TrEMBL record:
This is Nitrogen regulatory protein P-II family. The lineage of its organism: Bacteria, Pseudomonadati, Bacteroidota, Bacteroidia, Bacteroidales. NCBIfam families: PG0541_fam (NF045581). It comes from Coprobacter fastidiosus NSB1 = JCM 33896.
Length: 97
C-alpha cells in the first residue's frame, strides 16, 4: 500500500477527482486553501493581493500497482498547465487499520 500526496492549484480539483475516480481511488482526504510556493519555478500561492491563487491537497492510499498509472495521469495534467503547479509524492504505508 502507498500513500500519494498531491499538492495542486485549486483549478485542477475536478480533473484530479476524475483521475482518482478513473483509478478507483475511492478514499481520500482533501484540504483546500493551502498556501505554498513551488520549489523550482512555481509562483507563490498565498491568497494575498499580490499572489491571489491558492493550493489544495489530497492524500489517498492506493495499492502498489495503481501508483504508476496514477502518477502518469497527474504528470500529464501538470504538463498541460505547468504554470498552475501540481506535485505528487509517494510514501510506503507500513500498516493500516
Amino acid at each position: 500500500m502507498k500513500a500519494v500526496f498531491i499538492a495542486f492549484d485549486q483549478a485542477h480539483l475536478e480533473m484530479i477527482q476524475s483521475i482518482l475516480d478513473h483509478h478507483n481511488c475511492r478514499g481520500f482526504s482533501y484540504w483546500e486553501n493551502i498556501q505554498g510556493r513551488g520549489s523550482v519555478k512555481g509562483e507563490p500561492h498565498y491568497g494575498s493581493h499580490a499572489w491571489p491563487s491558492m493550493n489544495s491537497a489530497i492524500l489517498t492510499m492506493v495499492e502498489d500497482q495503481q501508483v504508476d498509472g496514477l502518477l502518469k495521469l497527474l504528470n500529464n495534467l501538470d504538463k498541460q498547465k505547468e504554470a498552475l503547479g501540481l506535485r505528487a509524492f509517494v510514501w510506503n504505508i507500513e500498516q493500516s487499520i
